[in-house]
């Protein structure tokens, strides 16, 4: 098996994921810059707000998917990448304008071509949403 992403290569891949214009517009940041797999956070404002004082579900869905990707990065080789194949999300509580939302993912299982992940979003220790994702592992042709 090829060498897994670590160090500067892992940091560069995480930075590229955060630099996607949609992530940037939402203000998504790493929870721990030294450990990208720890997840991402953002504040409910601007595009992340639904205009009625609460978190927009589409904004949250975007960062749920980002956190899953960040969690998977340490299990990818430098030549692999991953794309979302399926996602199921449960929104269980509202986050309000101004709230900091932390989104953390974990790899439940990784096969050669698929990864199964769970992601949880919280604000002030309260669960806002959960998601289960399947990501297809892409290899160079």
From TrEMBL:
Domain of life: Bacteria
Listed transmembrane segments: none
Entry-linked Gene3D superfamilies: Hotdog Thioesterase
InterPro entries per the UniProt record, alphabetical: HotDog_dom_sf, Thioestr_dom
Lineage: Bacteria, Bacillati, Actinomycetota, Actinomycetes, Streptosporangiales
Thioesterase domain boundaries: 53-127
Entry protein name: Thioesterase domain-containing protein
Species in which this protein is naturally found: Actinoallomurus iriomotensis
Pfam families: 4HBT
């Amino acid at each position: 098996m090829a060498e897994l992403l670590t160090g500067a290569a892992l940091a560069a891949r995480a930075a590229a994921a955060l630099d996607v214009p949609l992530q940037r517009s939402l203000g998504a940041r790493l929870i721990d810059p030294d450990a990208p797999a720890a997840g991402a956070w953002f504040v409910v404002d601007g595009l992340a707000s639904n205009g009625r004082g609460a978190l927009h579900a589409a904004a949250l869905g975007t960062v749920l998917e980002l956190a899953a990707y960040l969690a998977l990065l340490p299990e990818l080789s430098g030549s692999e990448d991953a794309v979302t194949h399926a996602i199921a999300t449960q929104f269980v509580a509202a986050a309000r304008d101004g709230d900091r939302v932390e989104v953390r993912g974990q790899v439940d299982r990784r096969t050669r071509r698929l990864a199964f992940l769970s992601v949880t979003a919280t604000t002030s220790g309260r669960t806002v949403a959960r998601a289960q994702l399947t990501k297809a592992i892409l290899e160079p042709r």
